[in-house]
User: What shape does this take?
Amino acid sequence: MPSELPSSLQLPVLMIAGMAIGVFINWAIYSWAMFLKRPISPWMTPSAEAGPRFWTDRIPIFGWLGRRRDSELFGARFWVRPMLIELACLLGVPFFYHWLLNGGLTSQTSLAVGWESSCGVWFYTYGILLVLMCIGTFIDFDERTIPDEVTVTGTIVALLLAGLVPTFGLPVLERGGALPALQAIHYASPNTLGGSHLGVSAMFVAMLIFLIWIWALMPKLPVWYVGLGKSVRFMWAHAVRPKRKTTCPLRTVNRKTPPVTLLLAGLLVGGLAAIAIAWQLLPEENLVSLYSAFLGMAFGGGLVWAIRIIGTIALQKEAMGFGDVTLHAMIGAFLGWQAALLVFVMAPFAALLVVLIQFVVTRQSEIAFGPYLSAGALILLVTWRQMWPIVSEAVFRLGPVLLMILAGALVLMALMLVTLSFIKGRLYKDELADQ
Assistant: This one.
């Protein structure tokens, strides 16, 4: 905890930590990329075409000035973005910590018992979330994908923190940002929890959510294109790679189960066992936090997944990448289902200006949506103290009615997209007929 250090050391330690985080972010952006694995980070093995590396290249921020010599290989000004990322982390980590400590999240600077420890929990928890979202954002900008190293790792970390640190959730606030008690929101907030809400049925719900999440990570063909049977057979063949039924001189190497399948299988078994153990050993406060994270994960991922399916069927092309689904599931696991809904609502507004500029300049309307989900999550954290007291009463007091409204909105969106697709198709046919 930085507050336990002498005041003269707090800022230097936070700045050093920020530089280290910036170096890690740059390494991860180029190491976790799926298609553009460019050895730009000085901590990666250089390519044969690159010039020699010097020890000064690994100095944070200033080392990128010397890397300008590789501009012919990686493009002009390739070094500017990673240098700015490390500079932003150098300044951003101390700012984020003091922002939290001085009431940025709650409008309260009380020194009550537990206040500084709660700030420390928020600092580490949301710091991890911001780092992962930063990595995912720049990879998504580069190649329109969000790697599982970001979203799967983040979701597992969020679930672990939820079970072990029940105060890691966003704080409950009253109007004006006042903090009545060091209490985190839960899956029923702002309503109170009912009795017998964390029994065996809740454990099985958590297990089902985890099982669906693992299944979603497996490679599969779109069901709406090839049918459920072919999609399941492809997923099984890709995951297990059973023995070939026929022999051929060109196929002499026996197929083996890929490492990712073994990893997901181990994660599934370990996760289900951990959920069962948690429901037996953890106190009620921890179970409320853990169950809230599972429901946030399911709601965040399920919302984007539903829109992806509806949009793809209606428009006959992929409307949203699956990385956006897993990213929003991670955000929901960290922040809760209520925050996941608010983030999804704010994301299009964060993207609107960028889309308009991009369309005017390039005439392209397609964007990577993941960065704007991350921007929405950042906006939510910054405005939480003003937002939650308002939306908790105006929106989330509706309870189950809100879910019915969302379901109706999805149906209306599907009808709207089908109608627009039909009109677009008719206009295109009319244009061809006129020609």
